[in-house]
Amino acid sequence: MEGLPILQKNAYISVLIKDNGLYANLAYTDYSNDTVYILHDYTDLYPLKRKLDDHIFGIKFWEEYFNALEKKWDWDIVERSDNRFLKFLDFQGEFSGVTGIKVLIDDNQKFFRKIYDSLKEFSNEIALRVVDDTHIKELFELLSNKLQYDDMLLLDLDLPEFSVYRYKAGEFSKGMISWQNETGLIDSIKNSKVKALMSVDVSMDEIMNKYANFVLRPQRQINDPILADILRAFCIVQNLTIYNENKKKLFGVGWQEQNTAIFVTGRLIEVMPLKDILLSLIDGFELLGDFDLYIDRKGLIYSYGRSMSLGKESSDVILGRHEILPKAIKVYLPELHTKKSKNKVIFQGSFSSMGFDREELFAINPEISIFNIPSTEEKVIFDGKFVNSADMVNGDGSKLSFVSSWESTLYDKVVVDARIKPVIYGPNVYANRNKFKSWFDEGKG
Amino acid sequence: MCMRIEINLKVGSMKVRDRVFEQYEKYEFTIPLNDSVKLFVKEGEDIGFGDNLFTRGESSTKESLYLPRELGCSIKKSKSCVASLPGEFVQKGDILAEKVSKNGLTVKRVEAGHSGIISTKRLSDGYIDILGEQSSVEVKSNFTGRVLSADSVRGLKICAETTAVDLRAVSKDFFNAKRENESISGEFILIGDGTSVYTLKDLEDDYRGKVVFAGRFVYEDVIKKIFELGAVCVLVYAMDYQLFRSINLPVGVIGGFGNINFPVEIRKGIADMSRCFVVADGEEKQVFFVKKGNMSLHSSEDQDDDFVDMYIGERVMSYDSQSYGRIGKVIEYDQETDYLTVEFQRGINSVISINSVAFVSL
Predict the structure, then answer these.
(1) Residues A76-109, buried b or exposed e (16+ Cβ, 10 A)?
(2) Which pLDDT score is estimated for B44?
(3) Which chain B residues have a beta carbon less than 8 Å from that of A36?
(4) CA A150 to CA A169: how far, in whole Å?
């Protein structure tokens, strides 16, 4: 396939449809002016959930959708005749027209066929793609070449389906939990493991009512601590179940020194704070070692991961890694060999940069410390070491370092989990509450 | 090379309007018939409100017994305990069902309180009925529509204008009814004015063939009694999820689970549908209220666009934990924080994230 001329201006729309949501992104590139940006929108289709299979969801909906995107982005996208959609407007320049449009539909999306057909009927200019295992495997192969990670994990945390894909040394594998209907998904919260991981003392009636309301009409922001606690416990149990059922496939993630990446996406990460995402990952997959964590809340990896990986060979749009990937979070998960290390410093390190004064860091057992890297345009050098019997499963814990820079990977945070592994929850909600208090020092978060 | 990256400040997401009362101009539904009916309408005919549709033989119900409660077992188990045959004539005191337990040491029996004919038509719901004399009942239309087909085997297929309301959840018995090719339909009746939480003393004597709206929240004894009184389906705004899962009867939940708000706007809309013919579709998870006479059906405001253009002045339903289920009007939008100021009652405002509300059309 022929690539695009690098200096050609481009405005390419990608729409990802998954878990009753539309993730739309318009990537504009003008390399002659050093200008690259992505306009984003997320439209929740839950209000139309019951109507996705009838006439209300059809050509008229797509017409209105692209009209609304035009207004939101202040960008002319469609050409009209008598106020009706005629075709997509040919690209003329910034804010006017598009060079192409692609719609990716998750094969697990309800009424997949109806949505696919309605788009086909709406316009033959749209390149329709299906996000299935084959698509993700190809995406991984390309990402692996581009990003140079030996071991990559993609977690897609949608409500009806939790999928975990791993690509290690050319081998692709998958683990998943899929709920065929809402009732099964809601009833799953009765699992005694969920209650064992919770830290609020509420009746099963309240748990079921709150969780059922969320599953049947999810919000994109929650401020209810009980619901947040339920979702964190639910995510850990789901991940743990996938891990236990696929131990051979998922064992040893993070053990490749400095060479593991975990990408997290899906509806649930939108409502979960970083701390809960970390717990669901670390405790759900019983992780050790270190990895780079990328939290993709905009569906950009699915939408433009392929274009980013192909670089100049891409046939739709040329994009760099910093436009597509969010800033990485470096996570260190040491092994602690003695229980005597409680309340002792087990990690010492620093951030150094031309852009700010050197910053010293330390982590105490059993805290999960989250260090924000100060904002700067300059390179940031991280150095650190584990002390007091803490060590890395995948290498020398006395020499940790990485560089955050525009030339390679940009990092946002460093996480050091100084808890003794394996992590033990319980025996009751009050004990869990105390453990969470001791794990997270709010001052650093 | 250091690329200039512009940050998109327009972070808010587009919103799809949720039409609570969606209008369908041509909805097709079937009224099941049996061999005993005499049809008065034929294919292609227009039906008006009050027109005679058919006559059918119908027996009065002398007594209804809910076997799981009488025998202290599940519906599934109770089916195997029935000791009388459908169509059998029983005298007062005859044994209708019997459950032997503890290796025969204890026996629980259900006896007939009246003499009459046994009907096991509702046994899948756990009920056994004793029927009285049969009489011919004339069924009149309480809707307007067109007959698409009419025969006693396939039923009476009608095309009519309807207003649909989405159901948040339906029990599995909705689907069972669908599988047995008996669409759940009937006259829509409210207990009281439908706005409160009702007790047994609020119920009428007979709900045969009716789809009953049980109010803002329902308890187990009330829901079971409504079915005992002959209802084909119960709709409710809210109930406890654990009861919903254990009830094993055709129940549809409109609002959600637990103690949630029942907004006055939705109350009014539901009350407007009182006495309409309603079809409850478990597969679509929607209830369709069929237009009656020349009266226009309650439907959401006719707004051309599915997408919300301007937030201010729009009505929203809150999913925030402090005001879950309440409906209010947006009076302010802060673009920087993506928070809305919503007026729920005159003078009472709340600040809510735009991601914790649904824009609704009522």
Answers:
(1) ebbeeeeeebeebbebeeeeebbbbbbbbbbebb
(2) 92
(3) 3-6
(4) 6
Contact B258 A182 (CB under 8 A): no
Pair B274, B297: CB distance under 8 Å = no
H or E element at residue A143: helix A133-147
Domain boundary among A131, A148, A172: A131
Positive or negative, the CA dihedral A54, A56, A60, A61 is negative
Domain extent at residue A161: 135-439
Q: Do A216 and B241 touch (CB under 8 A)?
A: no
Distance from the Cα of B165 to chain A's closest Cα (Å) equals: 10
User: Treating both helix axes as pointing N-terminal to C-terminal, what angle do A225-245 and A204-216 enclose, rounded to 10 degrees?
Assistant: 80
What is the torsion angle, in degrees rounded to the nearest 10, for the CA atoms of residue B204, residue B210, residue B215 and residue B217?
A: 100
Q: A347 vs chain B: nearest CA distance in angstroms?
A: 34
Q: Is A20 left (phi over 0), alpha (psi -120 to 50) or beta?
A: left
Q: Is the dihedral of CA A315, A320, A321, A324 positive or negative?
A: negative
Q: Please state the pTM of the whole predicted model.
A: 0.90
A6 touches chain B (CB under 8 A): no
A217 lies in the same domain as A302: yes
Is some CB atom of chain B closer than 8 A to the CB atom of A40? Answer: yes
Distance (Å) from the alpha carbon of A415 to chain B's nearest alpha carbon: 26
One domain, residues A98 and A191: no
Question: Which pLDDT does position A389 carry in this prediction?
Answer: 84
CA distance A288 to A32: 45
ipTM entry: 0.90
Upper half-sphere CA count for residue A88 (Cβ side, 13 Å): 23
How many residues are recorded in chain A? 445
User: Can you tell me the distance from the alpha carbon of A268 to that of A241, in angstroms, rounded to the nearest whole number?
Assistant: 17
What does DSSP say about strands B52-66 and B127-140: parallel, antiparallel, or unpaired? Answer: antiparallel
Nearest by CB to B16, which of A36, A37, A43?
A43
Residues of A within 8 A of B320 (CB-CB) are 223
DSSP string for residues in B233-264: EEEEEEE-HHHHHH--S-EEEEEEESS----H
B269: closest CA of chain A, how far (Å): 18
**Edge-to-edge strand list for the sheet holding B18-19:** B18-19, B357-361, B315-318, B327-334, B339-345, B348-353
Residue A3 domain-assigned (yes or no): no
pLDDT at B304 over 70: no
Q: Measured between alpha carbons, how far is A105 from A16 in angstroms, rounded to an integer?
A: 6
Residue B186 tokens read as 């009937």
Token reading at B8: 């998109």
Exposure string (b/e) for A138-155, b if CB count within 10 Å is 16 or more? ebbebbbebbebebbbbb
A224 contacts on B by Cβ (under 8 Å): 321
Closest residue to B16, CB basis, from A44, A206, A323: A44
Go through the domains of chain B in sequence order and give each one's CATH number. 1-17+302-362 (2.30.30.140), 21-26+160-290 (3.50.30), 59-136 (2.40.50)
Per-residue pLDDT tens digits for A101-150: 999 999 999 899 999 999 999 999 999 999 999 999 999 999 999 999 99
Mean of the pLDDT values across residues A292-311? Answer: 95
Q: Percent of chain A, pLDDT > 90?
A: 82
Which residue among A109, A131, A153 closes a domain? A131
Instruction: Kindly state the tokens that stand for B189.
Output: 């009746």
Q: Which residue of B14, B256, B353 is in closest CB contact with A43?
A: B14
On whether any CB of chain B is under 8 Å from the CB of A39, the answer is yes
Of A35, A37, A217, the CB nearest to B8: A37
Nearest CB to B13: which of A42, A48, A64?
A42
